């Protein structure tokens, strides 16, 4: 039995728990690195300072097992660790020196905390014997990180270094996953002690997959089997629990359409007969095929999503008569933003597996070709309607470029032929464009800063994910980073990191010389002089003059190209792919229509 009161699903073979525990005398810094290695961590993202010297020396001595990735700004270390964790399924680790370095990590740590990304942030701290003297770079880092971590602590003595790291790995990776932070005083890192370095099976459970309550599973299965038009909304929890096969099996069993959230694209291939595309609950936006599905469903199974909201109106997207079944590993999320018919606390993969078994028993399904199903034919019509709606934009020859046309070419050159292509997005209008207009085909290939919508994240999440693909799971993948010019301007120094470590990604910059989403508010919001027809002109703080991003990319030893005409898009993408094949990052500076925006009332 586990904390949920039910047995856990044992999803990996039992290990020999009597294996030898290594007893070693070493510095605390070495014990930290040894524990990370034993836990399966392969990369640490960070930027050293004076207090970091012992930790970095420990990484140097074990560079055969763990690699340090030097970033150009500490904030981006956390976002690289984010991408690494999503793509690899392992804990991401970042570090920063005391004071300003630690403060720079706040945005990325907060993002990982709120988006359930397993992250360990190692922050250095001024040596303990001068804390009371208000030394340079001293900061109350525990208070700073307390509200944005699952757990944080200061390492009090050298002898606890391995134990604290074991706790950090376990807490970060246990549902609901999230960020932890450990303060590491410089003098303690140098101190020696005797350490036990056990195999990870000694401090990590063989499985943490909590099963759902059996009676709730049975009730939910009956609702789904008897529904006229059931639908499944697969959230990010389905990605992080690796439940793609269960999502597809349950959907096919009940001929049930599947919608995704922005962060869960790829949980079902978006060319699957039952995939209807993204539905963004926080704005009531999405592909029309998904929005119509939500409107028509009588039973909605929502797995691994909390229905986050940006305004009270978004709670009305799902009609009151729809029976909602919500599954989440975090009991605090059940019914938090939308009343439920049935709430099930449990791991997405485990609960979906239970529902498959229960529905099979109740429905006694017969094998049929999905394409012959009347429901699938209805969904085909909805998808055709969506394609008809967007065709003028995705085929547009307008100059300046329409972002939809650029993304359709990205789809044809990268994602359709190479279905494991990584897609990462920064924060801005381009986030919505990317989610709506690009298809996802494989799980753990999409990195989207949904909760914070943080700018300056697309490039670095893509770099971290590409490192994981190439060096952890051993797959050659292309990586496309869709960025706005404002977002890219915040992290373009990390092109130096991409070049130094030969991490091949392609950055597609949507350049409208503005903070587009904020400018849209000024254009359309009547409270600040705008109107629904977009006639607002009171722009302030949202327009700027950019450098030549293509030439700047060349200065970083990357491939750079400016794209201004529709016929230039595909050759530029092919040139970028050739550069990626040589291990070189590419930047395409795409000049888009300055009035391009996304109409949430239509899409």
Quantity of strands, as a count = 23
Helix content: 25-40%
Oligomer type? single chain
| Distance between the amino and carboxyl termini | 46 Å
Mean pLDDT level? 90
Our count of domains comes out at: 3
Spatial order of the strands forming the largest sheet: 14-13-12-11-15-16-17
Q: What does this protein look like?
A:
The chain is α/β, with parallel strands linked by helices and 603 residues long. It has three domains: 22-202, Rossmann fold (3-Layer(aba) Sandwich), CATH 3.40.50.970; 209-378, Rossmann fold (3-Layer(aba) Sandwich), CATH 3.40.50; 395-591, Rossmann fold, CATH 3.40.50.970. The strands form five sheets. The chain has a seven-stranded mixed β-sheet with strand order 14-13-12-11-15-16-17. It has a six-stranded parallel β-sheet with strand order 4-3-5-6-8-7, with helices on both faces. It starts with 7 loop residues before the first strand and ends in a 12-residue tail after the last strand.
Main attributes of the structure:
Rossmann fold; 603 residues; 7-stranded mixed beta sheet; 3 domains; alpha/beta
Structure summarized in a few sentences:
This protein has 603 residues and is an alpha/beta fold. It contains 22 helices and 23 strands.
Topology (SSEs and partners):
Layout: E1 8-9, E2 22-27, H1 28-38, E3 43-47, H2 53-61, E4 67-70, H3 74-88, E5 92-96, H4 100-104, H5 106-114, E6 119-125, H6 141-146, E7 151-154, H7 161-173, E8 179-185, H8 186-190, E9 192-197, E10 209-210, H9 214-226, E11 230-234, H10 236-240, H11 244-254, E12 258-260, E13 275-280, E14 285-286, H12 288-296, E15 299-303, E16 323-328, E17 342-345, H13 348-363, H14 374-394, H15 403-415, E18 422-425, H16 429-437, E19 446-447, H17 458-471, E20 479-484, H18 485-491, H19 495-500, E21 506-511, H20 516-524, H21 549-555, E22 559-563, H22 566-581, E23 586-591
Parallel strand pairs: 3-4, 3-5, 5-6, 6-8, 7-8, 11-12, 11-15, 12-13, 15-16, 16-17, 18-19, 18-20, 20-21, 21-23, 22-23
Antiparallel strand pairs: 1-10, 2-9, 13-14
């Amino acid at each position: 039995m586990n904390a949920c009161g039910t047995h856990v699903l044992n999803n990996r073979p039992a290990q020999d728990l009597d294996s030898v525990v290594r007893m070693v005398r070493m510095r605390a810094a070495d014990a930290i690195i040894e524990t990370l290695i034993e836990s399966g961590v392969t990369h640490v993202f960070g930027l050293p300072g004076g207090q970091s010297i012992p930790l970095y020396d420990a990484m140097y001595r074990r560079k055969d097992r763990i690699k340090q990735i030097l970033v150009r700004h500490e904030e981006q270390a956390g976002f690289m660790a984010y991408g690494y964790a999503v793509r690899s399924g392992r804990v991401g680790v970042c570090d920063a020196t005391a004071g300003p370095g630690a403060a720079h990590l706040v945005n990325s740590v907060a993002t990982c905390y709120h988006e359930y990304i397993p992250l360990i942030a190692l922050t250095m701290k001024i040596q303990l014997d001068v804390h009371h003297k208000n030394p340079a770079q001293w900061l109350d880092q525990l208070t700073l990180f307390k509200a944005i971590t699952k757990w944080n602590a200061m390492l009090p003595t050298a002898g606890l270094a391995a134990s604290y790291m074991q706790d950090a790995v376990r807490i970060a990776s246990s549902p609901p996953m999230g960020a932890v932070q450990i303060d590491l005083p410089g003098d303690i890192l140098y101190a020696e002690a005797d350490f036990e370095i056990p195999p990870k099976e000694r401090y990590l459970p063989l499985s943490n997959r909590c099963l759902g309550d059996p009676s709730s599973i049975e009730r939910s299965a009956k609702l789904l089997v008897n529904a006229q038009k059931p639908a499944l909304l697969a959230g990010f929890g389905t990605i992080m629990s690796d439940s793609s096969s269960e999502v597809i099996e349950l959907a096919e069993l009940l001929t049930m359409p599947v919608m995704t959230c922005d962060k869960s694209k790829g949980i079902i291939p978006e060319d699957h007969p039952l995939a209807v595309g993204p539905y963004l609950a926080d704005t009531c936006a999405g592909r029309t095929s998904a929005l119509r599905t939500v409107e028509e469903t009588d039973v909605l199974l929502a797995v691994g999503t909390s229905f986050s909201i940006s305004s009270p109106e978004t709670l009305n997207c799902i009609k009151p008569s729809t029976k909602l079944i919500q599954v989440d590993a975090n009991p605090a999320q059940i019914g938090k933003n939308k009343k439920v018919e049935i709430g099930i606390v449990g791991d997405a993969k485990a609960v979906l597996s239970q529902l498959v078994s229960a529905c099979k028993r109740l429905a006694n399904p017969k094998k049929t070709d999905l394409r012959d199903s009347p429901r699938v034919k209805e969904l085909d019509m909805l998808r055709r309607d969506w394609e008809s709606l967007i065709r003028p934009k995705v085929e547009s020859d307008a100059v300046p470029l329409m972002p939809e046309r650029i993304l359709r070419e990205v789809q044809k050159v990268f994602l359709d032929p190479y279905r494991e292509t990584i897609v990462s997005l920064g924060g801005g209008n381009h986030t919505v464009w990317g989610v709506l207009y690009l298809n996802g085909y494989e799980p753990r290939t999409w990195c989207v800063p949904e909760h914070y919508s943080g700018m300056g994240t697309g490039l670095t999440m893509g770099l971290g994910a590409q490192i994981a693909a190439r060096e952890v799971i051993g797959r050659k993948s292309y990586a496309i980073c869709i960025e706005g010019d404002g977002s890219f301007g915040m992290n373009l120094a990390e092109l130096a990191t991409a070049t130094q470590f030969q991490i091949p990604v392609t950055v597609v910059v949507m350049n409208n010389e503005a903070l587009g989403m904020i400018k849209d508010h000024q254009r359309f919001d009547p409270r600040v002089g705008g109107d629904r027809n977009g006639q607002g002109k009171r722009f302030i703080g949202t327009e700027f003059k950019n450098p030549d991003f293509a030439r700047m990319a060349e200065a970083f030893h990357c491939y750079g190209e400016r794209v201004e005409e529709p016929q230039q898009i595909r050759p530029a993408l092919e040139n970028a792919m050739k550069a990626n094949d040589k291990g070189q990052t590419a930047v395409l500076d795409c000049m888009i229509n300055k009035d391009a925006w996304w109409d949430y009332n239509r899409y």
